[in-house]
Write a structure and sequence with these properties.
- The chain folds into two domains: about 55 residues, Orthogonal Bundle (Arc Repressor Mutant, subunit A), CATH 1.10.10; about 60 residues.
- Helix content is about 65%, strand content about 10%.
- The chain has a two-stranded antiparallel sheet.
- Helix 2 crosses helix 3.
- The radius of gyration is 19 Å and the shape is elongated.
């Protein structure tokens, strides 16, 4: 999906070329077919070649994947997911990043209060 999102659309050959240590070309084609069957991709035929494109934006796909991840691994608990993210050694967040997260929390509280008033 990364190879396709990076180009907005791609042929199987372009996906194959974009992957380091790529499996065989036929394996790439099979994977693209599976992703299409699952609704992640669609294609059009141009000069006998299938050109694959995502069915949803990268942002929308990311939100959907994150929601499934939180449901599966964190009992649908956003606080548990955030706590796990903050506890990982890879998440050495800068003061600016922490300020951004804090601002997002403030915005979420304001949205909730607006909804409660309605």
């Amino acid at each position: 999906m990364d190879a396709i999102y990076a180009r907005n659309e791609a042929t199987a050959a372009q996906v194959h070329a974009a992957l380091p240590d790529a499996p065989s070309y036929s394996a790439i084609r099979a994977l693209l077919r599976i992703l299409e069957d699952k609704g992640h991709l669609q294609h059009r035929c141009e000069k006998g070649k299938y050109i694959y494109m995502p069915r949803q934006t990268r942002t929308a796909a990311g939100k959907s994947a994150l929601q499934r991840l939180v449901e599966t691994f964190f009992d649908s608990s956003a606080p548990k997911a955030v706590a796990a993210l903050l506890a990982t050694s890879d998440a050495a967040l800068s003061d600016q990043q922490l300020d951004e997260i804090s601002a997002m929390i403030t915005q979420a509280r304001a949205r909730r209060k607006r909804h409660e008033r309605q």
